[in-house]
Write a structure and sequence with these properties.
Radius of gyration: 32 Å
Helix content: 55-70%
Largest sheet: 2 strands, antiparallel
Order of helices and strands: EEHHEEHHH
Structural class: mainly alpha
Number of strands: 4
Strand content: 5-15%
Number of helices: 5
Shape: flat
Mean pLDDT: 80
Distance between the termini: 49 Å
Low-confidence stretches: none
Length: 138
């Protein structure tokens, strides 16, 4: 028995002309909100308020960033700006060297302070041990 497997399960159906149901709801909701704003506010104030509302509703319906709908980007932005933030400061070696009695002022830090150095003999020993272990495995 052969069955047909759906091919485009990740693509939403276009129900209302070129728009999906979700896009249509964003556009109709934005248009309805703009209409209500025009009815209840004076014309000058209504125009100032309606422009951002219309832009956001069109952006929600049409814009995709990195193949993600704009609603996900908007949600992530709101969570970032409204959420609490944790700032960490790690006291580095630069601040310790500026204290009196801790080295000469203006002395630069060497790379040996941050990473261990391998001498050439130690490096050869490590490569030899890796070669020996590789030969034993074969």
């Amino acid at each position: 028995m052969r069955f047909q497997v759906p091919q485009f399960i990740g693509v939403e159906d276009k129900i209302f002309g070129p728009f999906t149901a979700k896009q249509f709801v964003y556009l109709v909701g934005g248009a309805g909100l703009c209409y209500i704003i025009f009815k209840f506010l004076p014309l000058f104030v209504a125009i100032i308020v309606v422009i951002p509302v219309a832009l956001i509703s069109v952006a929600l319906a049409i814009i995709k960033i990195n193949d993600k709908p704009f609603i996900f980007i908007l949600e992530a932005g709101l969570k970032y700006f409204m959420g609490s933030k944790l700032y960490l400061w790690k006291k580095g070696r630069n601040a310790a060297s500026k204290t009196p009695g801790k080295g000469a002022p203006g002395a630069s830090l060497e790379t040996s302070d941050f990473a261990p150095r391998l001498s050439e003999s130690k490096l050869k020993e490590l490569t030899w041990s890796l070669d020996v272990k590789e030969e034993v495995r074969k």
